[in-house]
Design a protein that fits this description.
alpha+beta; 3-stranded antiparallel beta sheet; 10 strands
Length: 275
């Protein structure tokens, strides 16, 4: 299935700004990611995830998004970025209010989605990523208009997500077979912290995904430092929904309205989009 087909067929999980489920309407991937000056300056807030996969040497797997991607093509980012979906088996819809999630950080649904997409995008068989070894860290609420590819006047696409951060570390030295989908991943590489810092200096900021850039300033380095000292056993896990606006280069002309706030682009419980 190509990018256009998935835009029409994938039904995302609409959420409020505190990650509460909004079940009053179905939101396709296309509907959620369409931005406009006519009442949709941030699309529709929905749930997403970002996987950070590390090998047994604590090297992080980076990927470069395929040029055929509709939003933010050709940028470097974390291992896998995608969405849990409605109507999947096993179920990918988590209720954050349940004790197993609010207290124990289980989030089984988003972990099912992560394993599904690691297989789809990178050809990583789920056997290499055991469900119970994926660690939920936190949630980020961010938005960004894709001005770098579509201009600042009226770009039609963007991202607006409550993004679940998931960490996974390979326990043994056996190489995980990677067979990237050309529709999803243009390039990939494992990097040490020093190699990653060198890449950040050499590759312009615009060539990194805006969500990944935001994570780096909000705990990421400590999580990596503590990978073997608590990160993978819940030391940094919390249910906060941390909001951030993007760097100014991701503002479209319609994003400068001073009335915009954290609720802009979210659905009310009865399905009304707040602009």
């Amino acid at each position: 299935m190509d990018q256009d087909a998935m835009m029409e067929s994938d039904v995302l999980i609409a959420v409020g700004s505190n990650d509460e489920l909004i079940s009053s309407m179905d939101v396709t991937k296309k509907k959620a990611h369409l931005f406009s000056k006519d009442g949709k300056p941030r699309g529709i807030l929905h749930r997403a995830f970002s996987v950070f996969l590390f090998d047994d040497q604590n090297r992080m797997l980076l990927t470069k998004r395929a040029s055929s991607k509709i939003t933010f093509p050709g940028v470097w980012t974390n291992t896998c970025c995608s969405h849990p979906l409605q109507n999947m088996n096993p179920d990918e819809v988590d209720d954050p209010s349940e004790d197993k999630n609010s207290v124990d950080f289980c989030y089984d649904g988003v972990k099912h989605a992560a394993r599904r997409k690691l297989l789809h995008e990178l050809g990583i068989d789920p056997v290499y990523v055991p469900h119970e070894e994926i660690q939920f860290i936190t949630k980020f609420h961010y938005w960004a208009a894709d001005t770098l590819n579509y201009g600042t006047d009226n770009p039609p696409w963007g991202e607006h997500e409550v993004d679940y951060v998931l960490f996974f570390k390979q326990k043994n030295s056996e190489s995980i077979p990677i067979i990237p989908s050309e529709d999803e991943v243009e390039d990939y590489r494992y990097v040490t912290q020093d190699e990653f810092k060198k890449m950040l200096k050499e590759i312009p900021a615009k060539d990194w995904s805006p969500w990944f850039r935001g994570f780096l300033d909000r705990g990421f380095w400590q999580w990596w430092d503590d990978l073997d000292h608590g990160t993978l056993t819940g030391k940094h896990s919390n249910n906060d929904v941390i909001f951030f606006d993007p760097p100014k280069e991701y503002y479209a002309s319609y994003n400068y309205d001073l009335s915009h706030n954290r609720q802009t682009g979210t659905l009310t419980a009865d399905g009304v989009l707040q602009s």
